[in-house]
């Protein structure tokens, strides 16, 4: 990798909630942070599929850094209940194992997308990535998403069911995406995945 292009891998955030069903929230946060960081042309970000094997594993950060070929790792945890979520994140330099930055976010679920942007912004600051004005704007905008937590939660569960690819799961995912759109008719990713489910059901 070029020395002037910082490289990072976002490890799957660990769900430490009492309720196992919060796994989808940890996965969603991981995916959204990767998506947001990937918008920065001067930052090399490892794809989500390449880090999935580390989910739930106790890992040595230097070893993971060498395996993925990155200079920095982001790891974190998610603890949620009915109304609030606490997210911790820390940025690690794999060369020496030192923590460059860490932060804890304790928010209502309605603030979840603001939290994701804050984490990504702090990472970029820590890496001292110099961005062009238009790149900063596109980063701030992040991926098309929703401020409706019910829609987002239902959408993430639908994505998990769709990935299983059985007809029963595809039908369940189809219904979940429709439910998400009932909560937020403008939620673009739910429209996309609903269309994908329709296509699979026609095969």
What would the average pLDDT be, to the nearest integer?
Answer: 78
* Contiguous uncertain segments of 5+ residues: 128-143
Whole-angstrom Rg: 17 Å
Biggest sheet overview: 6 strands, mixed
**Number of separate helices:** 8
Distance between the termini: 42 Å
Structural class: alpha/beta
**What assembly state would you assign to the polypeptide chains in this entry?**
single chain
Q: What percent of the residues sit in helical stretches (DSSP H or I)?
A: 40-55%
Find the count of extended strands (DSSP E, 2+ residues).
Answer: 6
Order of helices and strands: EEHEHHEEEHHHHH
Q: What portion of the residues fall into strands of 2 or more residues?
A: 15-25%
- Overall body shape: globular
Question: What does it look like?
Answer:
The structure is a single chain. The protein is of the alpha/beta class and 203 residues long. It contains eight helices and six strands; from the N terminus they run ββαβααβββααααα. Helix 1 packs across helix 4. It is globular, with a radius of gyration of 17 Å.
Considering the chains and any ligands shown, give keywords for the structure.
203 residues, alpha/beta, 6-stranded mixed β-sheet, 8 helices, 6 strands, 18% strand
């Amino acid at each position: 990798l070029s020395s002037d292009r910082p490289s990072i891998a976002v490890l799957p955030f660990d769900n430490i909630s009492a309720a196992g069903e919060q796994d989808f929230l940890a996965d969603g946060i991981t995916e959204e942070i990767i998506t947001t960081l990937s918008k920065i042309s001067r930052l090399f970000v490892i794809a989500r599929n390449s880090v999935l094997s580390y989910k739930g594993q106790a890992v040595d950060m230097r070893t993971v850094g060498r395996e993925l070929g990155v200079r920095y790792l982001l790891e974190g945890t998610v603890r949620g209940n009915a109304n609030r979520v606490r997210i911790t994140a820390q940025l690690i330099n794999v060369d020496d194992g030192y923590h460059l930055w860490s932060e804890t976010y304790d928010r209502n679920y309605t603030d979840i997308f603001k939290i994701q942007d804050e984490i990504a912004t702090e990472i970029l600051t820590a890496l001292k990535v110099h961005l062009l004005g238009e790149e900063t704007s596109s980063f701030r905008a992040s991926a098309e998403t929703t401020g409706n937590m019910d829609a987002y939660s239902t959408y993430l569960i639908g994505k998990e069911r769709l990935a299983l690819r059985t007809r029963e799961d595809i039908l369940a995912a189809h219904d979940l995406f429709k439910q998400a759109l009932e909560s937020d008719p403008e939620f673009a990713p739910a429209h996309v995945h609903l269309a994908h489910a329709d296509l699979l059901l026609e095969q």
